[in-house]
């Protein structure tokens, strides 16, 4: 059985279909992992969700920050007024409610202990163990799947608190969890999330540390595959036990898959067109 992880797709259905064809996966036994950010920026967000949804149980998708933001936009009085133009066709789709319901039930983290890999969209707070990260992801999943999910989604978004110890109110706790799992790139020496700078490590301010390179990081015992960070200076960081496979499909870059079940990860990419 083969297991492939696929980077951020961002509505780019054509590259996704070409990549799937190149993988020659047997969907009766092989597994496809998707690191999230299925939607936004590309021309066919609805088509991407339909394609992955149709793969059934062999496809495992974690939620990305753009997916979560879409669910938040849906709670607005006029979603189209707050959505990027690339999302309008999805909002107008006849099967949109079904697609949104499927998206809302995606997990925030996925671990295969036998395989020795964890998948998350952006990363993990350095102070969390992987067990703690999974437990906290489950808190957010429960809230997203609850009947009153719309109420908390209206207050979920923002950059504060940026320290886990300060996340005392229930909605603050969920906001920090969402940011740590779907938006994190850098932290400071104390582990505080640094949310504004989004570019390369080389050009980062002096007090910005990549989440995976924090010296006190407590979640490096298992390999992690993630997306989110298209400006990252590479995809393989084995010294930190992490692999980041957002290679910029949203910005006219390639879409990348990584095979996880081989002794060393293997990569395959397709161009945007």
Automatic annotation (TrEMBL):
Pfam families: Metallophos (PF00149). It comes from the Bacteria. It is an enzyme of class 3 (hydrolase). Keywords: Hydrolase. InterPro entries: ApaH, Calcineurin-like_PHP, Metallo-depent_PP-like. It catalyses: P(1),P(4)-bis(5'-adenosyl) tetraphosphate + H2O = 2 ADP + 2 H(+). Residues 4-163 form the Calcineurin-like phosphoesterase domain. Belongs to the Ap4A hydrolase family. This is bis(5'-nucleosyl)-tetraphosphatase (symmetrical).
